[in-house]
Amino acid sequence: MTSGITHTPSTSQIAIITPGIYEVTFSVSGTESNQFALFVNGLPVAGTIYGSGAGTQQNNGQAIIAFAAADVLTLRNHSSAAAVGLATVIGGTQANVNASIV
């Protein structure tokens, strides 16, 4: 984890401690077609809505964002046609990561 950000596992919020310009990359393994986007302080970040046309496709997105101290970043289901499940066992027998932000 970078010293300029904090995150508590199993929560949705990433807190920005040190202001600056950050590259944010995300990946989601949904079980349905989906659209996800990055949000800062509850507002969508322009140009960060990424979609997947099938539940077997990875949905990846990336943005360069200028953050202020105390901003909160989240990754959210933006406008998917239905609820999106996150795939837990893909391509093998072990549970796998189904969403990440770097």
CATH architecture: Sandwich
SS strand fraction: over 45%
Q: What is the rounded Rg?
A: 14 Å
Structural class designation: mainly beta
Helix percent reads under 10%
Which regions have little confidence, pLDDT < 50, spanning 5+ residues?
none
Distance between the termini: 9 Å
Major β-sheet profile? 6 strands, antiparallel
What name does the CATH topology carry? Jelly Rolls
N-to-C order of helices and strands: EEEEEEEEE
Brief digest:
The protein is mainly beta and 102 residues long. It has strands spanning 5-7, 14-16, 20-29, 34-40, 43-44, 50-52, 58-67, 72-77, 99-101.
Defining traits:
mainly beta, Jelly Rolls, 9 strands, 102 residues, six-stranded antiparallel sheet, three-stranded antiparallel sheet
Description:
The protein has strands at residues 5-7, 14-16, 20-29, 34-40, 43-44, 50-52, 58-67, 72-77, 99-101. The model has no long low-confidence stretch (mean pLDDT 90). It has no helices and nine strands. With 102 residues, the protein is mostly beta strands. 0% of the residues lie in helices and 46% in strands. The protein has one domain (5-101): Jelly Rolls, CATH 2.60.120. The strands form two sheets. Strands 1, 2, 4, 5, 6 and 8 form a six-stranded antiparallel beta sheet that branches. Strands 7-3-9 form a three-stranded antiparallel beta sheet, with no helix packed on it.
